[in-house]
Amino acid sequence: CPICQRTLTDRGALTRHLRVHSGDKPYECSMCPAAFAKPHSLSTHRRTHTGEKPHTCHICDASFSQRTPLRRHLLVHAGEKPYACPFCPAAFVDPHTLQMHKRTHTGERPYECRVCRKRFAQSSTLGIHMRTHSADRPFACSACPAAFRDSRTRDNHVRTHTGEKPFGCALCAYRFSQRANLVRHMRTHTGEKSHQCDLCPAAFACKQALLAHRRSHLGEKPLKCNLCPASFAYPQNLHDHEKTHSKRVACPVCDKKFSVGTRVRTHMRTHTGEKPFECSICNKRLARRSNLTRHMRSKHALQEASSEGTSGPAPTSVVAYS
């Protein structure tokens, strides 16, 4: 190569390599605006539309669209994580994953959208973003009218219908419907809080929590109720508020109405005095799980598992009675 002096095996390989320097991408996807410098890259990309995963693990049922993720997956079975992050305790099975992880510390975003110039830390994220510039949504949900631009997003959505949670924590019994939620949950074990607030000393395990926290400084309430003028800073607050517009379940003692039956059962404890949640350290009993969580943090300085995993079994610090 006359630009970087790299030596290649034949003229065709040199021609393909030169596109790295020129930015030429002659191989265009027929299903979205993506384009590639190599035909092999186009073939691999097409699998994001077709859902094809030809590379299968011989130890478990996992399958992958590319050979490289399969190699990384096999290291998980071997338990090897030789590539350590210089900024935090995280370690990874391959250098590529380490490189992507380091961008969460450095803020580097080397992949740019050709249409809107938005930048991304990972090429796969850029590929998903490119589909927002196309109206094509070939992957339909079989349970509802929703349709998606790629099979991965469709598969994640389908789990909201099936309740499937294929991603299990290796350190506790919690399971998750999406890999990203598992990654966030793992930080409750490692204590990693790599997202620092620039307005106060607070730090968070995930970017979403940091963005939500910054609203407490800025006074932002971008989430608006469709039925009244109320607005909120956090999605959960908006979700809880919207239920007040459709209260259907009444307490049989005082006739107070609730949007869901679980709220009625919790409310009934104010009448019965029932306290089913017991602290395993001091044996104090409380009526609500959330009260027990606050008690554990304030009195015993323990960090409970993330609320994203509430569908798993009760944490070991909780004794619950039916």
Notes on the protein architecture:
With 322 residues, the chain is an alpha+beta fold. The chain contains 11 helices and 21 strands. β17 (249-250) and β18 form a beta hairpin. The protein is elongated. The N and C termini lie far apart (72 Å).
What order do the helices and strands come in, and which of them pair?
Elements: H1 11-22, E1 27-28, E2 35-36, H2 39-50, E3 55-56, E4 63-64, H3 67-78, E5 83-84, E6 91-92, H4 95-106, E7 111-112, E8 119-120, H5 123-130, E9 139-140, E10 147-148, H6 151-162, E11 167-168, E12 175-176, H7 179-190, E13 195-196, E14 203-204, H8 207-218, E15 223-224, E16 231-232, H9 235-243, E17 249-250, E18 257-258, H10 261-272, E19 277-279, E20 285-286, H11 289-300, E21 318-320
Antiparallel strand pairs: 1-2, 3-4, 5-6, 7-8, 9-10, 11-12, 13-14, 15-16, 17-18, 19-20, 19-21
Subcellular location: Nucleus
Biased composition (Polar residues): 304-314
Family: Belongs to the krueppel C2H2-type zinc-finger protein family.
In terms of per-residue confidence, which ranges show pLDDT below 50 for 5 or more consecutive residues? Answer: 303-322
Q: What is the CATH first-level class name of the domain at 247-303?
A: Alpha Beta
Number of strands: 21
Rg for CA atoms: 25 Å
Largest sheet: 3 strands, antiparallel
Name the CATH superfamily classification of the domain at 247-303: Classic Zinc Finger
Q: What is the residue-mean pLDDT, rounded to a whole number?
A: 77
Q: So, CATH architecture of the domain at 247-303?
A: 2-Layer Sandwich
Could you state the oligomeric state of the chains shown? single chain
Figure out the total of helices: 11
CATH topology annotation of the domain at 247-303: Double Stranded RNA Binding Domain
Percent strand equals 5-15%
Give the N-to-C terminal Cα separation. Answer: 72 Å
Strand order of the largest sheet: 20-19-21
Organism: Amblyomma aureolatum
Biased composition (Polar residues): 304-314
Subcellular location: Nucleus
GO molecular function: DNA-binding transcription activator activity, RNA polymerase II-specific; RNA polymerase II cis-regulatory region sequence-specific DNA binding; zinc ion binding
